[in-house]
C-alpha cells in the first residue's frame, strides 16, 4: 500500500515534485522515504533511550519555552487528546543531546515545512514561532500493552503531512500489531511489515491512524524495552496556546 517517494534532497529542491507528492498524500495514499537514518545509528539511539527509560523517573512536563527534554510514561492518561499506552521521549530544539537529533532529523522537518508552505527551517530555532515548536518524539510501545487509539491529527499552516519513522523491525522485535492507516476505501491497513528501521512514512493528518497493540499475548513489562519504537516529527503548540487544533480520538477502531 506504500508508494516510494523521491529522495528528500530532490523533493526539497523541486516544488513540482512536492506538489505531486502532496496530491497523493491528500488522496490518502501513504508515501515512504527509505533509509533516512542508517539502521545501526537507529539501534544506538534506541539503546540509549532504553537506558534513559530504565533509569529515569518518568514525569509529565508541560511544553513551555525552555522546557527540558523529558521521559514520560503514558498509561491511558486522560490528559492526552488521544488515548494510548507508551513511553515518550521528547526533544525540544533549544536543548542539545549526544545524537544531535534535530540535525539528524532536519531533512524530514524541512520537507514537512515545505509541504505546508512554510519556510524550511520554521519551528526549528531556539524560540517558538506562532506559539509552536518542532519536537522530536520517540515513542516506545511495550509488548503486551503498547498501543495508541485510532485518531486524526489536525491540518493547518503547521502541517499537511505527518512523517513517522520506523525504528524497530516487524517480525524480529515484535510480530503483531503496529501502525495501521485507514485507506481511501475505509479499510485499516497495517504497514510495519513493509518498513525497516530508518524508513519514514508520510500520510495526511486527517487519515485515521493508530498503533494496534504490540504482541498482545505477551505479558507486559514496562522496563524490558521489548516492543516497538517509532519516531514522530511533530510541531506542537506551547501550553496555553490555541494556535493549533487538537487531535481527534476515534477509539479502538
Ligand atoms: O507513535 C507513533 O508511531 C504514532 C504517533 C502518532 O500518530 C501521533 O503522535 O499523533
Ligand atoms: Fe497521529
TrEMBL record:
This is Fe2OG dioxygenase domain-containing protein. It comes from Teichococcus deserti. Keywords: Iron, Metal-binding, Oxidoreductase. Belongs to the iron/ascorbate-dependent oxidoreductase family. The keyword Oxidoreductase applies. PROSITE patterns: FE2OG_OXY. GO terms for molecular function: metal ion binding; oxidoreductase activity. The keyword Plastid does not apply. InterPro entries: Oxoglu/Fe-dep_dioxygenase_dom. Residues 132-237 form the Fe2OG dioxygenase domain. It comes from the Bacteria.
Amino acid at each position: 500500500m506504500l508508494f516510494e517517494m523521491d529522495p528528500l534532497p530532490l523533493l526539497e529542491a523541486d516544488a513540482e515534485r512536492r506538489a505531486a507528492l502532496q496530491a497523493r498524500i491528500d488522496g490518502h495514499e501513504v508515501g515512504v522515504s527509505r533509509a533516512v537514518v542508517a539502521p545501526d545509528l537507529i539501534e544506538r539511539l534506541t539503546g540509549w533511550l532504553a537506558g534513559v527509560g530504565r533509569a529515569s523517573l518518568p514525569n509529565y512536563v508541560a511544553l513551555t519555552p525552555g522546557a527540558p527534554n523529558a521521559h514520560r510514561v503514558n498509561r491511558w492518561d486522560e490528559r492526552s487528546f488521544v488515548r494510548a499506552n507508551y513511553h515518550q521521549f521528547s526533544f525540544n530544539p533549544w536543548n542539545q543531546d549526544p545524537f544531535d537529533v534535530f540535525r539528524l532529523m532536519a531533512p524530514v522537518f524541512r520537507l514537512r515545512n515545505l509541504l505546508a508552505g512554510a519556510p524550511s527551517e520554521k519551528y526549528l530555532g531556539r524560540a517558538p514561532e506562532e506559539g509552536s515548536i518542532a519536537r522530536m518524539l520517540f515513542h516506545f510501545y511495550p509488548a503486551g500493552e503498547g498501543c495508541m487509539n485510532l485518531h486524526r491529527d489536525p491540518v493547518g499552516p503547521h502541517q499537511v503531512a505527518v512523517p513517522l519513522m520506523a525504528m524497530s523491525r516487524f517480525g524480529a522485535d515484535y510480530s503483531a500489531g503496529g501502525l495501521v492507516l485507514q485507506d481511501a476505501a475505509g479499510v485499516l491497513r497495517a504497514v510495519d511489515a513493509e518498513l525497516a528501521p530508518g524508513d519514514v512514512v508520510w500520510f495526511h493528518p486527517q487519515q485515521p491512524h493508530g498503533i494496534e497493540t504490540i504482541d498482545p499475548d505477551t505479558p507486559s513489562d514496562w522496563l524490558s524495552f521489548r516492543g516497538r519504537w517509532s519516531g514522530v516529527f511533530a510541531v506542537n503548540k506551547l501550553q496555553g496556546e490555541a494556535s493549533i487544533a487538537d487531535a481527534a480520538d476515534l477509539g479502538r477502531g
